[in-house]
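This entry is listed below:
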Amino acid sequence: MKKWTRPQIVQALQLAAQEHAELDSKRYSVWSQNKNVPSLSTVIHQFGSWREALVAAHIQMSFHYYSDEDILRALNQAAEELSLFTSQTYREWSKVTRSPSLTLISSRFGSWSNALREAKLQTTAAKNNEERIIQALIEASEELERLTSQHYAIWAQERGYPTVATIARKYGSWSYALFVLDIAPPKRKWDEEDVIEALRVARQELSHFSILHYRKWAEGRNVPSTSTINALFGSWTAALKCMEEQKVNQ
C-alpha cells in the first residue's frame, strides 16, 4: 500500500477541486475511485478531518457552517417571506435561498417544533388554530349567558369549534385563556344575605338538601359556591344555622 505524503494529498485535493466547483467528501470519494490518488480515509487520517484537509489545500468549503443564531434568523426571515409557513414550504425556500436545511435544523434543535419554539415562531396551521380559538371564545362570550368551561363545551361541540382541552393546551388553562382575551366573566362579590337566599331557594327545590346536593344544584347557576359559603360562615353547618335563625326571627 502506497504511503501518501501531505503534499501529495494536497495536490490530489486541488486536482479534484478543479473538476468539482463544490468539492465535498462524498464527491471526492467518488472522484478518487479507480485513480492513483489518496482515498478519502487516507485524507482524513493524515489531516484529522475533511475540513482540515481542505484548509491545508486552500480549498473553500462546499458548505456553510450555521450557528444556532444563523438558523433562528433564517427561520424568522422565512416566516416573514412565506405566506404559508410550514416545514415543507421552508424546505423549498431554504433550497432557493441557500439557507440552513430542514435536516440540519431538526438535527441541531432535536425537532422542527423545538426550533420554532426557540425562534418564538408558529407555523401557519398553529396560527390558524389560535385564531379559531379566539374567534370561538369571543362568539361564546356573546352568546352564552355564563361563559364556563361546562357551558362552552356543549356550545362548541354543537358547532365543531375547538374543545376546552384544546384551549387549555394552548393557553395552559381555561381560566388563563379567558384572562388573556380579557373576556373572563366578572366575579360577583357575594355577601351573607346572598348565601342565605341561595340556601333557601336550594332547600325549596331539592328533595334532599346537603352540601353535596347543593354543590350539584349550584352548577351552571349564578349562586354562591360552597367554597364561598365556607369562607363567609366558616362552615356549611354554620351557614345552615344562620339561615334557620333568620327564619325564626322573621
